[in-house]
Design brief:
With 780 residues, the protein is of the alpha/beta class. It is 27% helix and 12% strand. Bound molecules: adenosine-5'-triphosphate.
C-alpha cells in the first residue's frame, strides 16, 4: 500500500491501490475509535440530529476535540489542525485522484477558517459550534454537497460563490438578518435557518429543488416569498405570524409547523392536497369552527392545537374529531376508533341511532308517569291497534294522500295529527294538519311521556302523541300518519305494528319542481329534502321488506290510485281483479291494463328488486297458548257460556267498500274519548277473570300492558301475541279445531293474508281494523 504525501487540501498525490485504513487512521489520529463514535453520536461526521427534516445541532451539544492540539488563541484554523479532522477518503469529483471528502471541526472556537480555501474537493463541511463570521472559503469548494455552519456568528447569508451541487445547508443559530436571492442554488434541497434574525422570507422563489425549509425562531411576521417552491416540509415555529396566507400554491407541502406564532384563524390552509401534518401549538385559535378550514385537506392526519384557547371550548376534542374525521392524531394523542364513533353518534347520528335514542327517551319519560293502559295495548283480540304510516321525503305528498285516504276510508282510518313546533303554513288548520305548539309545550309533552316518537326536522320538532293513536282507537279506527324515516325507525322500536307505505319520488326533477311550486321552502330546504331521498333507497336496499309497499308519487293521482288499491287489498275489501293481474305488490308488477297504473315500472331497480319471501316462522309457545285460549273461548261461546266472544272473533270481516258505507257511518255519534281509557295499576291485567291467561300469556300480557315494556318480549312473542292478525291467522286452525267451516261461521282467509306483500320480516299481515265501532243505543 502506497501513501506518499498528503498535500494541502487533503489530496493524496499517489494512487492508492490497496488497504486505505492507515490513511483514515492518519485523519483520525488522536481520536481513536471511541472518539469517532462519540463524534458520530453527537452529530459529528455529517450526521446531525434531524428536526423538521433539516439537519441541526443541539445547542446543548458539548463540543469535543478532534484535534491533537487546541487551535490558536485567535481561533485561526491551521493546516495541521484541518488535516487532523479530515475523513472519508474517496475519489475526488474529478475522478483523477483520491481526496478526503469530509471535514468536521465542531466546537473549537474557530474564527478564521480561510485555510480551507485550498480544500477544493470537500463534499461535506461541518463547522458547528465555532465563532466563524466569514465562510467565503466555501467559494473554493465547487463540489460541496453538505454544509453545516450552525452555531456560529455568521451574518452574511450565503456569503460565498454557489457550489453547484450544494444540497443541504445548516445555518441555524447564527446572526443572519436578511435573505438574498438563491436562484443560483438550484440543487439546494434542505435549508435550516432556525434561530437567526430574519424578518421576512425572500429569495427562495427559484429554489427549484428546495423541499425542506426551516425558519423556526426568527422574527417573521408574514408568510411570503415562497412562490412555487416544491416544499414538502416547512417550519415557521416561534415567529410572529398572525395570518396564514400565500401558501395555497405550495401544492407539495406535507408538513407545516406553525407552532408558537400568533395565529387566530386557519383560513388560508385550503387546497393543500398533500398536507398531512399541521402543528399549531401555542397559537391563538379560539373557535372550533376554525377547523372547518381544514376540512378539505384530504390527507390531513395529524393536528396539534395544544395551548390554544380553543381547547377550553366544551367538547373540544370530540368536536374537532368530528369535523376532521380523518385525523389519526390530535394534540399529540392518538385518535381512537371509539372516539370517532362517539363523535359521529353525537353530532351526526345515523338515522338508526337517532331513532333508538328517541325511543329510549320516550320510554324513560313514560316510566316516570303513572302507568296507563291504553286501548291500543290491551291484551285482548283487538290489540295492538293497527296503524298505517305513510313515509317518504318531505313534500312528496304524504300528507295530502293521508288526508284523502282517511276521507275515503273513513270507516277504517282516522288521520293522526302530529304535534309540531313549526308555525302553520297558509291554510293549515290547527288540530287538523298538525297540533301547532310552542317548543316549550312540546318539551313539556316529551317530559310527560306523551309522545311515542319525535324527530327534529329542519330545526322544528315533530311528534306523534299516543293520544293521536288512541283517539283513533276509541273510534274503532286505525290511525293513519305520515312521517320521515327517523320516525318510522323509532316507531319500529315500539310495540305497535303499523303497515309502512313508502311514497317515493322517482323523478327527482318533478319532485324538486313540486317543492318549488309550493313556494314554502328555501333552496336549502329543497336541497336538504332532495339529499334525503337516497336514505329511503338505502334502507329499502339494505333491509328488503322494511316498507310493506313502495308507491311512486310523481303523480299524486296515480299514487293515490295505487295507495287505495293497496289499502283495499290490505283491508280485504276487494277480491283479486279479474285475471288476477291487478295487484299492487312489490313482487307482482301491476299490469297497465286495469284502472291501476303500472306503479312498479317506474321504481328504480334498487327499490324494485325482488324480495325474498320468508316462510312463516314456527309458532312460539305464546302463540300456541293464544290459539288454545281462543279455542277455549270459542268452545265456551258455542256452548253458550260466553256468547259475545265468537261474535267478536268473526266481527272483523264486515267488509264493505268505503264508498258504500260513507253515508251510513259518517252520521254515527262519536264515542266519548275518555271512555275506553283505563288508568289502573299494571297488575290489573293479571287479575282479569274475563280472559284467564296461561302463564306464558300472562307474562306477555303484563309486558303488553305498559307501553314501556315493548321490548321485553322477543319478536316471536310479540308476533304470537301482539299481532291482532293472529285472530285471523288462527281462524283456519280454530275452525278446524271446532269444525266451524261448514257452519259458515268462519270466512275463508283472504288471499293477502298468506304473506305480507313486500315483507320478508313479517310474513303475516298486521291486523285489519274492524271498521268504525257502533255505539249501542241505550234501551229506552
Ligand atoms: N311525528 C313525526 N315524525 C316524523 N316525521 C314527521 C312527523 N310529523 C311530520 N313529519 C314529517 O316531517 C316533515 C316536515 O313536515 P312538514 O309538515 O313541514 O312538511 P310538508 O312540507 O308538509 O311535507 P309533506 O307534504 O310530506 O307532509 C314531513 O316529511 C313530515 O311527514
Amino acid at each position: 500500500m502506497c501513501l506518499e504525501r498528503l498535500d494541502r487540501g487533503g489530496v493524496h498525490r499517489c494512487r492508492v491501490t490497496a488497504d486505505v485504513s492507515p490513511l483514515l487512521g492518519n485523519a483520525q489520529r488522536g481520536r481513536g475509535p471511541a472518539a469517532v463514535s462519540e463524534h458520530r453520536r453527537r452529530g459529528g461526521g455529517g450526521r446531525g440530529r434531524r428536526e423538521h427534516g433539516v439537519s441541526v445541532h443541539l445547542p446543548a451539544l458539548t463540543p469535543f476535540s478532534c484535534l491533537s492540539a487546541p487551535p490558536d488563541e485567535d481561533g485561526k484554523l491551521t493546516e495541521e489542525e484541518a488535516r487532523a479532522c479530515l475523513s472519508n477518503l474517496g475519489r475526488s469529483a474529478r475522478g483523477l485522484e483520491y481526496a478526503y471528502l469530509c471535514l468536521s471541526i465542531p466546537g473549537q472556537n474557530l474564527r478564521d477558517v480561510s485555510i480551507l480555501c485550498s480544500y477544493i474537493y470537500l463534499q461535506k463541511l461541518e463547522l458547528p459550534f465555532n465563532k466563524i463570521k466569514d465562510l467565503s472559503c466555501v467559494s473554493h469548494m465547487p463540489y460541496l454537497i453538505t454544509l453545516d455552519a450552525s452555531h456560529n456568528e455568521i451574518s452574511d447569508f450565503f456569503g460565498f460563490k454557489p457550489p453547484k451541487n450544494l444540497k443541504e445547508v445548516n445555518f441555524s443559530h447564527n446572526q443572519m438578518s436578511a435573505m438574498k436571492d438563491l436562484s443560483a442554488y438550484s440543487s439546494l434541497r434542505r435549508l435550516n435557518l432556525d434561530y437567526n434574525m430574519f424578518h421576512e422570507i425572500q429569495g427562495l422563489e427559484n429554489c427549484v429543488s428546495l423541499t425542506h425549509l426551516s425558519l423556526a425562531h426568527n422574527r417573521i411576521s408574514s408568510i411570503e416569498g415562497l412562490g412555487n417552491v416544491p416544499l414538502k416540509e416547512i417550519s415557521l415555529r416561534g415567529n410572529q405570524i398572525q395570518r396564514i396566507k400565500n401558501v395555497s400554491q405550495l401544492q407539495t407541502l406535507q408538513s407545516f409547523d406553525l407552532a408558537f406564532n400568533k395565529i387566530q384563524s386557519l383560513c388560508g390552509l385550503k387546497n393543500l392536497d398533500l398536507l398531512g401534518t399541521i402543528d399549531l401549538e401555542g397559537n391563538q385559535v379560539s373557535e372550533i369552527k376554525e377547523v372547518s378550514h381544514l376540512h378539505d385537506l384530504p390527507l390531513l392526519r395529524t393536528l396539534n392545537l395544544k395551548q390554544n384557547p380553543v381547547q377550553d371550548e366544551p367538547d373540544y376534542r370530540l368536536a374537532i374529531i368530528f369535523l376532521l374525521q380523518r385525523l389519526t392524531s390530535l394534540d399529540q394523542q392518538e385518535v381512537t376508533v371509539e372516539e370517532k364513533v362517539s363523535t359521529v353518534n353525537k353530532y351526526d347520528p345515523p338515522v338508526e341511532v337517532t331513532a333508538a335514542r328517541d325511543h329510549m327517551m320516550h320510554l324513560v319519560y313514560q316510566l316516570t308517569q303513572p302507568q296507563v293502559i291504553f286501548d291500543s295495548t290491551l291484551a285482548d283480540v283487538d290489540t295492538p291497534y293497527p296503524m298505517l304510516v305513510l313515509t317518504g321525503p318531505q313534500a312528496c305528498g304524504k300528507r295530502e294522500l293521508a288526508h284523502k285516504l282517511c276521507r275515503d276510508f273513513c270507516d277504517f282510518f282516522a288521520y293522526g295529527a302530529c304535534h309540531t313546533t313549526r308555525s302553520p303554513y297558509f291554510g293549515e288548520v290547527d288540530g287538523c294538519d298538525y297540533h301547532f305548539v310552542s317548543e316549550e309545550d312540546f318539551h313539556d309533552m316529551i317530559r310527560s311521556g306523551k309522545f311515542i316518537e319525535t324527530v327534529r326536522y329542519d330545526r322544528h320538532l315533530y311528534g306523534l302523541s299516543r293520544e293521536a293513536i288512541e283517539s283513533a282507537a276509541r273510534e274503532g279506527l286505525a290511525c293513519c300518519v305520515h312521517m320521515e324515516l327517523e320516525g318510522v325507525l323509532s316507531l319500529r322500536n315500539t310495540y305497535l305494528e303499523p303497515r309502512y307505505v313508502l311514497l317515493f319520488p322517482t323523478d327527482r326533477e318533478a319532485y324538486m319542481r313540486r317543492m318549488q311550486q309550493r313556494g314554502l321552502y328555501s333552496h336549502a330546504q329543497i336541497d336538504a329534502a332532495m339529499s334525503r331521498i337516497h336514505l329511503y333507497v338505502q334502507v329499502h336496499r339494505e333491509q328488503p321488506g322494511f316498507f310493506d309497499n313502495v308507491i311512486p308519487c310523481d303523480d299524486l293521482q296515480e299514487a293515490y290510485k295505487a295507495l287505495s288499491q293497496v289499502m283495499r287489498e290490505y283491508l280485504g275489501l276487494e277480491e283479486l281483479a279479474e285475471g288476477g293481474s291487478v295487484r299492487a305488490t312489490p313482487d307482482n308488477t301491476c299490469s297497465a291494463g286495469g284502472s291501476l297504473v303500472n306503479c312498479w315500472a317506474k321504481i328504480p331497480s334498487e327499490l324494485s328488486s325482488k324480495m325474498p319471501v320468508r316462510t312463516a316462522p314456527q309458532r312460539s309457545l305464546v302463540e300456541i297458548a293464544s290459539i288454545q285460549r281462543r279455542q277455549q273461548l270459542a268452545q265456551e261461546a258455542l256452548t253458550g257460556r260466553s256468547p259475545g266472544v265468537i261474535t267478536q272473533l268473526i266481527h272483523r270481516f264486515p267488509l264493505i267498500a268505503p264508498a258504500a258505507v260513507d253515508a251510513h257511518t259518517s252520521s254515527l255519534p262519536l264515542q266519548d274519548p275518555s271512555e275506553n281509557r283505563c288508568v289502573r295499576p299494571i297488575t290489573w291485567l293479571q287479575d282479569t277473570s274475563l280472559f284467564p291467561l296461561s302463564s306464558q300469556e300472562s307474562r306477555a300480557s303484563s309486558g303488553l300492558s305498559t307501553h314501556s315494556s315493548a321490548r321485553v318480549l322477543s319478536p316471536e312473542d310479540l308476533d304470537g301475541h301482539l299481532d291482532m292478525g293472529e285472530g285471523i291467522r288462527d281462524m283456519p286452525s280454530l275452525g278446524e279445531g271446532l269444525n266451524l267451516r261448514g257452519s259458515g261461521l268462519v270466512s275463508p282467509a283472504p288471499a293477502t293474508l298468506t304473506a305480507r306483500p313486500g315483507s320478508d320480516a313479517k310474513p303475516i299481515l298486521p291486523p285489519i281494523p274492524s271498521g268504525r265501532r257502533t255505539i249501542e243505543q241505550p234501551n229506552p
